[in-house]
Amino acid sequence: MSTTIYDSIITKLVEECYNELDVDKKVEILYKINSLLPEPYRIDIPSLITDDYIDSALYRIEKNMSIL
Q1: Residues 20, 60: Cα–Cα separation, whole Å
Q2: What is d(CA 66, CA 53) in angstroms, rounded to the nearest whole number?
Q3: Contact at 8 Å (CB) between 42 and 15?
């Protein structure tokens, strides 16, 4: 799969995660996003995840994607 397709999928998942209200579903989406990122851009996800952490992680992912 090309990088452009991955970028499109990740962008869609990030938007979906921001809009999700259920924190457990947000965590699932975050793990999915992280698994799609190239190895150097993956984030370390702690065992205890808060809604604020998810938003912060999504922001970092978006920032990293802009330099890919």
Answers
A1: 18
A2: 20
A3: no
